[in-house]
Amino acid sequence: MPVAAKAAAPDSPTWPTPRGDEEAALEPNLPIVDPHHHLWENRPGVPRFMFPEVLTDLGSSGHNIAQTVFIECGSMYRAEGPREMRFVGEVEFVNGVAAQSASGNYGPMRVASGIVGRADFTMGDSVKPVLEALIRAGDGRLRGTRYNAFWTDIPVWGMEHAPLITPKGLLADTKFRQGAAALAGYGLSLDTGCFHPQLMEMAAFADAIPNVTMVLNHIGGPLLIGRYAADKAATFAEWKKGMTELAKRPNIFVKLGGQGQNWDYPIGHVDPPTTSTALAEKWKPWIETTIELFGVQRCMFESNFPVDKTTASYGTIWNAFKRITASASAAEKAALYADVARKAYRLPVQVASAAP
């Protein structure tokens, strides 16, 4: 049974309600594993998104959300102790939310069935004790870690905030590669992201850690602001060239989504109400091209919530995806919406029922 969202403090930003773009869910029985959402509180200028908000947005969307994967976002780090171990606090916190969801008292959806934490790979081999601490904190739910490699020379909102701060050339750094390679020894995957001009660097990075399963977030980060917005055809061509090269690496999965975030507006900004039809038309070339390059067995849809809440409601975003895949076969839909996420994150097939 859903719980009410906690009231925000009077001076805290809140998500606008109603959005004005809510739609009835298309294909409401199609099982979905959402492999990318966050949980946070007390972030300056950003509305809270905790378990109650997840239950409201995901659980009330009309879509059949069976499981989710939490992706690190700098939430609830430990306030004390060695810097490299402070990241462990986030996994400790999320594992508590996952246990709460697994009780069955909040409905059949299982939130944070898989957890992706954070570790500092610039430590090289010294990162191993951190990985071991994350595994213990996850209590069987930790599936990997994320370290983004976003870098650009144009102003992008969020670049001044961790975890988006990365130096130029990070992916080629020997010690960083050594740290990332350590994941293989623990059976953990690596979530990462970059902007589209960095995709060739990402391909070289994947070559350097062939034994690590990688999950590229947000279809390779196409930038459509600044000079990249001036000639969108050229930007698309540059992005496709990089994705074509990356698709040759068999250890890489790709998340289809993240196109609703505004790289030039803060998370508190919200676009005017839109429709899933409009979003599908806008996103279709990028998503269909990614699927063509990587195949349905290496692609998974993601909500990127609540970041993409700046663009549309949770239900509207999934409706947009379903419009794009309207002509896909049942097997293709099963892969894109659930099976690939379960494979990439080694999730059990959840057969959940509400607690008596």
Please give a handful of descriptors for the protein shown.
single chain; 356 residues; alpha/beta; 8-stranded parallel β-sheet; 8 strands; globular; disordered N terminus; disordered C terminus
Return the string of H and E elements.
Answer: EHEHEHEHEHEHHEHEHH
What is the straight-line distance between the termini?
11 Å
Described by strand count, sense and barrel closure, the largest sheet is:
8 strands, parallel
Proportion of beta-strand residues: 5-15%
Instruction: Report the strand count.
Output: 8
Read across the widest sheet, the strand sequence of neighbours is 1-2-3-4-5-6-7-8
* Helix/sheet category: alpha/beta
What is the number of helices?
10
Kindly describe this structure.
The chain is an alpha/beta fold. It is built from ten helices and eight strands. Strands 1-2-3-4-5-6-7-8 form an eight-stranded parallel beta sheet. The relative contact order is 0.16.
